[in-house]
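Form 7-S
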Amino acid sequence: MQAKQFDEVVVEVKHVSKHYKIAGREDKVKALNDIHLAGDSELLPIRRGEFVMLRGPSGGGKTSLLNLLGTIDRATEGTIELFSNPINVDSTDEYLAKLRLEKIGFVFQTFNLLATMSAYENVELPMIILGKLNEKERKKRAIELLTLVGLQDRLDHLPSELSGGEQQRVTIARALSNAPEILLLDEPTGDLDTKNTVEVMDLLLDLNLKLKTTCIMVTHNPDIECYADRILYIADGVFEKQVFNIEQTRLDYDEYIAYLNSQAGH
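Output:
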């Protein structure tokens, strides 16, 4: 595999903290504490085409950080820069909504598909909301994306007629519908069995390599770290370390199953 070249910075996090106030408690809960991913730190900013995983214990701050990067939530202190534009208290809801619609794709552990809509309609919906493509262009793109994720024969199926792995593929196709520059993934394999986990990770790696989509993924599964360019470990709201993979590799399903079975015996 050819070594990836990273140039342009797409995400910088500058001394960001996130505190929550909980009813009935005096002290605030500190979800994130002085998180810094920037050119002037050893923890580098996230660059276009990079596949970054966020790992660490539950409650460590992974999802809080992902929500800030997706502008679903706002930092208590510090600044996040997306595509060199700062996101801060002055950023309007309209601006952030447009940013999410045009440049950020979301994939969650729970598939969040609309139950009354077919796979095709679920993928088409963000394009309708954005309003850039006409009906013919939307149809072509929705079919292309569902073909890309291997579901060209499932266009008219409702979510209830699809397996968990298939539903997650529809979710990924939907997240890609407006050609986002960043894909944010929160435990995308958390509800999947081993076979579907490997298939979905293989798919995400293909998308990352072919489309050059920047992927930032929260996971609790250490076995899939091999798919990332870089893993950032976060605990108690702070980064503990970063690890680089020399190259991204896939899990071999048969070998992985044999490994899991050998571990189960211990």
